[in-house]
């Protein structure tokens, strides 16, 4: 593939695919067309045996790429046209993920200013090269955005609290800092770059990069890290602001001055993003998806237009932000990271390039287990499934029995209806499993059954885990489940790559049975809050309060909850949910009743007083067993309350 424009040069030289940014007067700012051209080239070279590696560089000494081309976004946004910017971000983020996941080596040579979109180009590839002129930064908070293009992932991976410092202050990293913070891999003097590029193109061998590398220059941030960690460890923006105000050092004063220039809402959201990344699994696709929630809303609801006006258009450097530095409401930041309705990021499927595949037996291929098994197969694992019903899934081999599915597997996963069935299946498959394999039960069952099965598995030389899930069928299909895991620590480490495919978060809760204990507590809260949410909507209807107005208030105020913000029971309000599909179950009311009964049994065994859980169980029992709740989503409590008075 060869493409020459005034913005970018794409061609093949020897064994290398070459991508060169060619607009140095604009600091090689990244346009929408450039993103699409880079993506097309990478896809073209993916299966080309003559292309052994890819080189990305840029003309000019001042900048590799100083960011995205935001002027057009501003012009359209001022007219109330937001889709152009949103499409740009969706396309750019897809390209960022492709760069990060590309199976062939990619070497990026990042001289001068490398900021924003430039970090998206050079920050995720396999060989990231910096020189003496390199200045890397994520300055998005200064224009009312957040560190995006996967930058939030790089910041979350930085040592200590350097990610918070870099993301909030937009501080620049020279070559030593870039290496210390994980934004680069190799320091090579820029005088040697052209010779190295020629060698790489001739040989297609990336080993030449390590041979040319020199010891890392000094990192000022490394020497300042102790102070940075102390000042930027706060949970919220106000905590960091207060810590900086309380410090009397010159460094703290300079950092506070930097924060005072940037959009407070953007900084508060940046903190929340970094904390979410660290609490879950660090993954480029999940980082980009979280970033997109903000950028999708950045023009109509954020400070982006005002930030661009002040910094780029009028250049008065006097933006009028929505919030004061010390007064960003928690709800405002949470709203910017709510799921986006009717907009999802699409990524390229490179699963054929995956390595380190596991042999997995998956038993129980229903509404939850089926999508989970498919996601594992799409990721390149060898999955054999069994279900008592005839189920055919793309990429999943079919076994004639549970024992056949489990034989010789590295991991056996079960997703079953109850504890008795789990114990029966476990008695069948444990003797067929090889020593050292992981027995991973993702069912929601009683704690005693989970611990009994774990004991049997451990006695047979297996690594038992109980890992019930949260997230419903939508989460199973999207690979965004949360796993609450009890059991062997070594087993958890073995299974963690699988959790990262099937979900967005996995938490090791301790000994066997603790995963089930966590799920029971979580779903008792969920059952109670869904009832309260449905009651509130029904009350709002009777008071003449518009549902959208109620959602807009409650979802950004103290009444916010997962039941309101993510799984809203009112059709047409908030992100899509089963309410928009006539309450066809994502999580059936029958299953909620089952979980609440498990919670009641656990509370009785532990002598715990749970009156709200007991009341929720009684309501769901009436809804499922005496009314029309059977087979409907658990959020269908809303039409139930709509139709009822106090009598």
UniProtKB/TrEMBL annotation:
Write down the Gene3D superfamilies for this protein, in alphabetical order: 2-enoyl-CoA Hydratase, Chain A, domain 1, N-(1-d-carboxylethyl)-l-norvaline Dehydrogenase, domain 2, NAD(P)-binding Rossmann-like Domain
Annotated GO MF terms = (3S)-3-hydroxyacyl-CoA dehydrogenase (NAD+) activity; 3-hydroxyisobutyrate dehydrogenase activity; NAD binding; NADP binding
Which InterPro entries does the protein's record reference? 3-OH-isobutyrate_DH-rel_CS (IPR002204), 6-PGluconate_DH-like_C_sf (IPR008927), 6PGD_dom2 (IPR013328), 6PGDH_NADP-bd (IPR006115), ClpP/crotonase-like_dom_sf (IPR029045), ECH_dom (IPR045004), HIBADH (IPR011548), HIBADH-like_NADP-bd (IPR029154)
Residues covered by the Enoyl-CoA hydratase/isomerase domain: 17-330
| Any single GO BP term | L-valine catabolic process
Q: Which residues form the 3-hydroxyisobutyrate dehydrogenase-like NAD-binding domain?
A: 513-638
Instruction: Identify one Pfam family in the record.
Output: ECH_2
What UniProt keywords apply to this chain's record, in alphabetical order? Branched-chain amino acid catabolism, NAD, Oxidoreductase
- Looking at the record's lineage, which domain of life comes first? Bacteria
Q: Which SUPFAM superfamilies match?
A: 6-phosphogluconate dehydrogenase C-terminal domain-like (SSF48179), ClpP/crotonase (SSF52096), NAD(P)-binding Rossmann-fold domains (SSF51735)
Catalytic reaction list: a (3S)-3-hydroxyacyl-CoA + NAD(+) = a 3-oxoacyl-CoA + NADH + H(+); 3-hydroxy-2-methylpropanoate + NAD(+) = 2-methyl-3-oxopropanoate + NADH + H(+)
The pathway this protein participates in, as annotated, is:
Amino-acid degradation; L-valine degradation
Write down the PROSITE patterns for this protein, in alphabetical order. 3_HYDROXYISOBUT_DH (PS00895)
- 6-phosphogluconate dehydrogenase NADP-binding domain: which residues? 359-510
Q: What is its EC number?
A: 1.1.1.31
Q: What class of enzyme is it?
A: oxidoreductase
The entry assigns this protein to a family as follows: Belongs to the HIBADH-related family.
Q: What is this protein called?
A: 3-hydroxyisobutyrate dehydrogenase
